[in-house]
Amino acid sequence: xxxxxxxxxxxxxxxxxxxxxxxxxxxxxxxxxxxxxxxxxxxxxxxxxxxxxxxxxxxxxxxxxxxxxxxxxxxxxxxxxxxxxxxxxxxxxxxxxxxxxxxxxxxxxxxxxxxxxxxxxxxxxxxxxxxxxxxxxxxxxxxxxxxxxxxxxxxxxxxxxxxxxxxxxxxxxxxxxxxxxxxxxxxxxxxxxxxxxxxxxxxxxxxxxxxxxxxxxxxxxxxxxxxxxxxxxxxxxxxxxxxxxxxxxxxxxxxxxxxxxxxxxxxxxxxxxxxxxxxxxxxxxxxxxxxxxxxxxxxxxxxxxxxxxxxxxxxxxxxxxxxxxxxxxxxxxxxxxxxxxxxxxxxxxxxxxxxxxxxxxxxxxxxxxxxxxxxxxxxxxxxxxxxxxxxxxxxxxxx
Length: 399
Ligand SMILES: [Zn+2]
Description:
The protein is α/β, with parallel strands linked by helices. The chain has helices at 11-33, 39-42, 59-71, 81-87, 106-116, 138-149, 171-174, 187-196, 201-210, 215-223, 225-235, 237-240, 244-280, 290-339, 351-357, 362-380, 385-395; strands spanning 48-52, 94-97, 126-130, 155-161, 178-181. It has 17 helices and 5 strands. Zinc ion binds at residues 72, 74, 76-77, 79-80, 82-83.
């Protein structure tokens, strides 16, 4: 299995990226031998790339696969030490910039840009992967722009963002990147990947359909009973909204479920991180200089706690957003049913409730879909989750 097999349903992107990695290998070889290759081949490689596509299309998967292909002696064989270490995020010359909170700070960006300017320790490339380039603060984007404008000879920047829209990536950065566009993979391709990872075919098919081509979600849905239960709870909401009290109760459940999911995620990670920090800071020492060390350890701990808090906030938003995507697909299913369209439904297991809501006027269904999307936008704009969600469930109330 090569690194490209991870890129589900994206033959065009694989063609571009494997071509570029072959050109990159020639550049590495000519650096070593002093010979120069054909310009046409070398033109396939460049220093800055932007991966765009809808959530779940595999932007970061594509960036990681390309990073592995650049570091691998065999163009991304998927088997060597380079491929493995890139895959597990431990390769010395591949730097992952992942926002821990809601944004990527300028300090973090500057640190990465500095590291990336060094010669690669493995002799091939320094690769910087920015997984959510749309979450760069303005200052962080400027720090990155400087590096992308004058990239060190052996440094490659791989940025991921939902689209090339200026809201996602500043025009100044975008104009210096080669864009690779990914599409939502077809459900059968997603199911195929799950089956190859050991999921039973019928479960894989259901999870692929239910996750609307989002590989990560499909994988989780197929394996995690909690995720399945959360999804069932969300799908029960539309038909339950028969009075105001039910609307408020549904909102409360949605918000609490997101909080609980985020808390579980935090509980798993926060304490081990604090312990690792304490160990690194040499907690409990009594020698000379202990007071100064304790002071800086205190600052580092505060910094870590701040990061953890903002990461938990983000996990809450993400969890709530997943629920909203499921709700939106429910109303879409109602519209498809009303139109008699021959399109696969997202929630076959909710077919009974979907059928009940087809009694609504089509415009009323559309208005409810709009209400769900408006809630997503409000959350994006930092409206308090409870307020945004209550406004939504109230708008979803059945006559
Ligand atoms: Zn390899």
